[in-house]
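Today's session is about reading a structure prediction critically. Students often jump straight to the picture, but the first step is always the sequence itself: look for stretches that repeat, for charged clusters, for runs of hydrophobic residues. Only then move on to the predicted structure, which in these notes is written as discrete structure tokens rather than atom positions. Here is the chain we will use throughout the hour.
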Amino acid sequence: MLVWPKYLQAKSLEWIEKSSLVSLVFPNECAFCQCAVEGGQRLCEACLQQLVSNRYCCQRCAMPLPSVLPNDQCSRCRDHHWHFSNILALGHYQGKLREAVILCKKLRVEYLRYALARELANRIRERFPDMQQREPLIVPVPYHWSRTLARTASTANSLAELLSQHSGWPVATRMVRRILRTGKQGMLSLVERQQNVRGAFQIVGSPSLSGRHLLIVDDVVTSGATANELAKQLRRSKPLEISVVALARATG
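Below is the predicted structure for this chain, in token form.
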């Protein structure tokens, strides 16, 4: 995979794409499989089909569903109180998309995160054609400060910044603080996950969110417990709507 030097930050990637000189040195190639692509494309058609899915799913929580069932909201959504309105994801957390999400956690694969963020922005616009009129605000799920010691990228923050570049929507990276160092959710039950993140977030100050559509950004949504706890805190500021956007939706 093409590895960009550290000084080529995300904000310069759009310029890099348009530079004919850089194109000669770094030919246009797919950000995932490195095959040649047409100018302006960041993912080849084969990778797009594997990474961005139109699989039938619940319109509320994005859980994959059999096509014979209504998808306005699944049975789990009817039994669960969500503090957000919906989840949007590129696809199911499996196969090539799972590989891409894991790769995105590495520090020096900004170009792949850039490509996936662009597809995520497209998916949001498809779902909400009037998003610009909703005064959207991007809110990445914050990590605890101790995570900065790890040799991995803050995928949520990076995705949020790149999503902002593709859409023009502002991002709030300091509006929410993670005040509890929670354990990993992976091996916990749904109830345990909810308990694990309870009280983990704190809103900084008194932000004015009335009438705004908030977009909570994370790399993967599994049970929805983390995003729901964050949405619970944000809901107190009376936003117009809260959506959760992620690269992938896992089933747990």
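Discussion point for the tutorial: Confidence is low (pLDDT under 50) at residues 1-10.
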